[in-house]
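SAMPLE LOG
Freezer: B-3
Tube label: C17
Construct: single chain, 257 aa
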Amino acid sequence: MQTPPPRFERSAGRYDAIGDGYAVRRRVEPTWLRAIHSAVGSAARVVNVGAGSGNYEPQAAGVVGVEPSATMLAQRPPGAAPCIRGVAEALPFADERFDVALAIHTVHHWSDANAGLAELRRVARRQVVVTWDPDVNARFWLLRDYVPELADHEATLATVDVVAAALDVRSVDPLPVPRGCRDGFLGAHWEEPSAYLDPRTRAASSGLSLLDESIVTDAMDRLRRDVASGSWAAANSELAGLDALDTGYRLVVAGST
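STRUCTURE (predicted):
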């Protein structure tokens, strides 16, 4: 078997290390599914880049996934779209092979985001990308009060500004996180602080998984004390009446219709 190029190994390594159990913790959130599928529309040919376990993929014959991590590929359920092992920066498809290129919570993991986004433009007339605004996310209580180091790190990643600069953007819309969100991304448990005290919850978020363990341990000790004392509830009382919260996630639609 041919040895994958170093870029492939870097892309795969992150989720080969933290991806076990991902499919259990990172389930489909129905409100996001509707928004993403609405953006994809009636496209017959869709490539899902950084496809992971297949969440949010349209269920259609013309869908194919691309994923670098063997750990993630192994968690794709029976009946999921066919998926090949590869990287965003070198998609093995002809120009304009697809109607839509889909990329969900993946651009920030690419070794060369601009190269990967250029590939999305090359292989598809339209691009649908889920990313986030790090300035908005930095105001989320978890980052603001407990892990500001994560906010500092996120400011260095390829997020919404990089995506917008690289693509011919038609719209950028918030993806609010509903109360009781079924997915397990970083902001999913905004109304349930105790959820973050569970190591399995933290393992479902790449940001918390890859942050220095001593930083996370200290932050969770403080959060545990604040939950027990009622300090967290007092500091975040405005959340009690909300059905959803904007923690910065954005749905970007670009290219031709």
